[in-house]
Amino acid sequence: MIEIEFTLEDVARTRFALSPLWEVVASVRVLRGADEQGLHRAWADQVRPRLAAAGVDLTPLFDLVPVPERSPWAGRIPGFLVPPPTTPLPSLAVELATLRATPPPLLWTTAEVPPARMAALRADPARELGRLADAIEAYWELALAPYWSRVLTFLESDIRYRAGRLVEGGTQHLFADLDPQVAWADGMLHLEHRTARGSRRLDGRGLLLVPSAFVWPRVFSALNEPWQPSLRYPPRGVGTLWQSRPVPVPEALAGVVGRSRARLLAELSVPASTTDLAHRTGLTPGGVSQHLTALRTAGLVSAHRSGRQVLYARTRAGQTLVEAAGAGAPEHTGELTPPPRRAAR
C-alpha cells in the first residue's frame, strides 16, 4: 500500500490530462498479452493483422514495453518513454517532440527491457530517440489513429464526470469511485500496490490524473520520477468501449448532409474501407468514394493508409455531429463487438 500525502498546494495543483503517447504504450501492452479478459479483443483482432501486413519495424517501441508474462499486473514501463503531459490534451506530435528531446541522464529504467536497447539509447540518444519516435508514429497511424475519435470521446466523458464529482463533493468525492485500488482517507490517497510500500509526498506539485482506455485492470503510478506525480487509471465503464448496438441513421443528420452521407457517418464509428462501406450500405463503391471525399473536405472524416487499403474514420467534428443528431456514438452496427469473459466494471 502506498500513501500519497496531499497539502493544500497539492490539492490546488491536481489536474486531469489525456496522453496519446501513453495510449500508444498501454495499447502495446495489450497486444503483448496484458488483456487476459479479452476486453480489447475486437480491437486487437483488427490491429494485429494490420501491423503484420504493414511490415514496419516497431522493435524500437516494442522492446521498451515489457511482456506481462506472469499476469497483467506485471511489467514496469520506462518513465522516459511516457513523460506526463504538461497540457490537458497534447497532440502526439507535441509529446513526441518532448520524447525526442529527452535529456541523456533520464535514459535509464528498472523495467525488464533488452539491455542492448538501453545501451543503444545511451550511446546515441539523438539517433535512437528519433528511431523510437518514428516507430511510435507508424504504430499510431496503423493501430490508434483510426479509432482515436472513439477513444477520445470516451476519455473526455470520464473527465467531465470526474469534474462533476469534484464540484459536487470536493477531493474525497472525486476519488471515491476512481478505482477499487484507490481510496481517500485522512487527507491522503491510499493506493494498493503489489510491491511498493510507504508514504509519498507530492511536494506541492499536485497529482496528474490520466484516464486511459488500455490500462484496466491496473492503475499505473509514477511518483518518483522527475516529472509531476501521476496516476493512469481506467475510466468508468471501460468494458463498453468496443461494445456495439444497432445505430439508426439520424433523420436530423440526413436532413443536413443527405441520407447516404449520414449513413456513412453512422457506420464510421469503426474504421472501414470503401469496399466495406459499400457492402454494409448497399451503395456502389464509386458512390461511397464520392461521398467520403465530400465528407473529408468538410472535415468530418479522416483517411488512414493501412498497407494497400485506406481506412476511413470519423473526425472529432464528425463524431460531434453524429452525437448531436442523436446517433448515440460510440455504438456501431459493425464488427467491433468484444466478447469479454468478465465485465470490467
Structure summary:
The protein has 13 helices and ten strands.
Structure characterization notes:
The protein is built from 13 helices and ten strands. It has helices at residues 8-13, 20-31, 41-54, 59-62, 92-100, 115-123, 125-144, 148-176, 251-257, 259-267, 274-281, 285-297, 316-324, and strands at residues 2-5, 15-16, 182-185, 188-191, 198-201, 208-211, 220-222, 230-233, 301-306, 309-314. Strand 7 and strand 8 form a beta hairpin. Helix 5 (92-100) packs antiparallel against helix 7 and helix 11 (274-281) crosses helix 12. The protein starts with a strand and ends in a 21-residue tail after the last helix.
If you compute it from the alpha carbons, what radius of gyration comes out, rounded to the nearest whole angstrom?
21 Å
Briefly note the structural class of the backbone: alpha/beta
Side-by-side strand order of the widest sheet:
3-4-1-5
Poorly predicted tracts of residues = 327-335, 337-345
The description of the largest β-sheet is: 4 strands, mixed
Give the number of helices: 13
Mean of the pLDDT scores?
86
Element-level helix/strand string: EHEHHHHHHHEEEEEEHHHHEEH
Silhouette: globular
| Percent strand | 5-15%
Keywords:
single chain, alpha/beta, 4-stranded mixed beta sheet, 13 helices
Secondary structure layout:
Blueprint: E1 2-5, H1 8-13, E2 15-16, H2 20-31, H3 41-54, H4 59-62, H5 92-100, H6 115-123, H7 125-144, H8 148-176, E3 182-185, E4 188-191, E5 198-201, E6 208-211, E7 220-222, E8 230-233, H9 251-257, H10 259-267, H11 274-281, H12 285-297, E9 301-306, E10 309-314, H13 316-324
Parallel strand pairs: 1-5, 2-6, 6-8
Antiparallel strand pairs: 1-4, 3-4, 7-8, 9-10
Helix pairs in contact: 5-7, 6-7, 9-10, 11-12
